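Morning. Coffee machine broken again, so started the prediction first thing and wrote up yesterday's gels while waiting. Chain of 283 residues, entered below exactly as on the submission form.
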Amino acid sequence: MRLVATDMDGTLLNANHEISEKNKQTIQNLQARGIEVIAATGRNFPEAMAPVRQAGLSLPAICINGAEVRNEKGEIIAATHLLPDDIDKAMITLAKYDIYFDLYIQDNIYALSAEKQIDMFMQVGQSAKQIVPTEAIRESIMERIGKGIIKEVDTYDTVLDKHKGAVSKILGICHSDEQFELATKELQQSPQVAISSSGKGVIEINHTAAQKGIALEKYAALKGIDMKEVMVIGDNYNDVSMMERAGISVAMENAPDDIKAVCSHETASSDADGFTLAIETIL
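Came back before lunch.
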């Protein structure tokens, strides 16, 4: 095994959105053995790197579900954006089903509501069967707003006037299963749009070329690594494109049953250092 690709929320990160000391040591041990570790996440780059740097680690990253691939220095290796017409259609569809959404543009997340951001992180944590620390998440979101990573705006119109060609992802949150299914079905009708999810009720809209699996293949090829030499660890539907391509695929205990069915192995939950257990068991 020459490369380990790990999802972040619900996989590498615990309920506090941190990399535990055990998982940190495991990553350092892999790197010392010459085995590369890459984070593969729906987060944008600043969000992805916050817990990585907090743990004192350095990792390359597949960000925004594969819309960006970055090296350890943060330099963009590859980038894919939604088409302007698909952005318009997606926004109309989400509004039709009363689904709140954010726009991911470059290193920023544009949001209409900080409270909706908190709600989104809560829902992702709950779907990973974590005990979600509400106040810690609130503090984290407000800190990101303070740093300008999350930008609260009154309307998306002025944002899109400036950045319509640079939208990497649209992220929606829905509390109705029926509305979620109807919106997803309608969004999937656009041939250049890929729909995935990192948690119950979370709709992630990317270009079809912006998928974690495609991005991982690109990164592995650049490194001269065969996909048979790649191990993937994840917990949700936006990880499936990686799991299907890797030599070894591992589902977290907190993953849905149909995700586990795709994988060759299963490990403990994210709060029980399932990442480390998978590495120790398999490698």
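The CA atoms of residues 143 and 149 lie 9 Å apart. Going to sketch it on the whiteboard this afternoon.
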